[in-house]
């Protein structure tokens, strides 16, 4: 799909879609729970559909009624309905599933597409091998066939927090207690808070023993719970930046008490000089003079692409650091943003874990933009192009379906003029 954008300015308001991270977690906890849970405000992006389908294969019964899911948890880990679990392109789905599905003690192959199976899994390979268990990772899939055991786990903290979340979901279901020690630097820590919060809502606990050590009592049981998914700050970020660099915007549907790390976009925008009113259920963003800043992505990697766009519109220099994980997402997001923002005439450079962007006072894009099969790159480029007030084409725009299938509908609601070809 190509997105053909015509010059326009931001206006009006939208309701932000439900959090993808919280949806994965709620669906998984409900699928592991005793009894029936009702999960409300679910949006069916490709990543969330992969988690729903996988949990059905595990034996959970999941019924959809509009944006509500009725989930009856697995009765036993012997109900596995398939030997191949397709995770599409969702890193969260794959890395959350591996320890959970290991509990079935059966031959299982996890498959996917796009870049999924090229993304690092060595943290799990090392864990399985250390316990004497098979873990075979080939370009066509990841194969396991025995259960992880309770005990002491040591993990690198700077590859992906999704390994820690995956273990946190599964270890409470083993008979004995476990400990996870995270070797610093511990990045994306905010996502562990989301995992712990959701587990606790479903009656399962794990505790920080110290800053880098989590203690997980064994022999626990998830209990059904009714839960409404909160709005997604990672998606809000695209529209919040659009409002600040274009002509203002009002965003509804999020809670300011959220634990999502990407809530940091509000502080980042304020740091740049944006004028923001906090509303009962969102924010009003006013256009203002913006000044480039130094931004730490340690706890909010998914903000990377849109903060690059903010840097292009902020006066002076923006320096983004602790960004190496952006290279191991759906695309190498640093390389992708460099290539695409240069098409606007922007001066942008990088090192393995930093990005430096100079203000571009006159962004003119004379060639087609490319989405790099990455939803966050497509959404960031849509914002960059709209604020440039020039016509633009974004190729590979269907990548938005991974997390935000209705992105362009919302884009139009706030003034964007776009034809999808
Ligand atoms: O746990 C989660 O929901 C996520 C964790 C983050 O990944 P890393 O921990 O690999 O940085 C983030 O980038 C991803 O989009 C979602
Ligand atoms: C990286 C992302 O997701 P995942 O790791 O689950 O594929 C994302 O949504 O930007």
UniProtKB/TrEMBL annotation:
Family to which this protein belongs = Belongs to the EPSP synthase family.
Gene Ontology MF: a single term: 3-phosphoshikimate 1-carboxyvinyltransferase activity
The cellular component terms of Gene Ontology attached to this UniProt record, alphabetical and capped at eight, are: cytoplasm
Please give the name of this protein.
Answer: 3-phosphoshikimate 1-carboxyvinyltransferase
Family matches, as PANTHER family: AROM/DEHYDROQUINATE SYNTHASE (PTHR21090), PENTAFUNCTIONAL AROM POLYPEPTIDE (PTHR21090:SF5)
Q: Which domain of life is it from?
A: Bacteria
Q: What interactions and quaternary structure are annotated?
A: Monomer.
**Entry keyword Cytoplasm:** yes
Question: What does the UniProt entry say about where the protein is found?
Answer: Cytoplasm
Q: What does this protein do?
A: Catalyzes the transfer of the enolpyruvyl moiety of phosphoenolpyruvate (PEP) to the 5-hydroxyl of shikimate-3-phosphate (S3P) to produce enolpyruvyl shikimate-3-phosphate and inorganic phosphate.
Biological-process GO terms, alphabetical? amino acid biosynthetic process; aromatic amino acid family biosynthetic process; chorismate biosynthetic process
Catalytic reaction list: 3-phosphoshikimate + phosphoenolpyruvate = 5-O-(1-carboxyvinyl)-3-phosphoshikimate + phosphate
Query: Quick check: keyword rRNA processing in the entry?
Result: no
Enolpyruvate transferase domain span: 8-410
Q: Which organism is it from?
A: Amedibacillus dolichus
User: Pathway listed for it?
Assistant: Metabolic intermediate biosynthesis; chorismate biosynthesis; chorismate from D-erythrose 4-phosphate and phosphoenolpyruvate: step 6/7
Q: Which gene encodes it?
A: aroA
Query: Which top-level enzyme class is recorded in the Swiss-Prot or TrEMBL entry?
Result: transferase
InterPro entries per the UniProt record, alphabetical: Enolpyruvate_Tfrase_dom, Enolpyruvate_Tfrase_sf, EPSP_synthase, EPSP_synthase_CS, RNA3'P_cycl/enolpyr_Trfase_a/b
EC number in record? 2.5.1.19
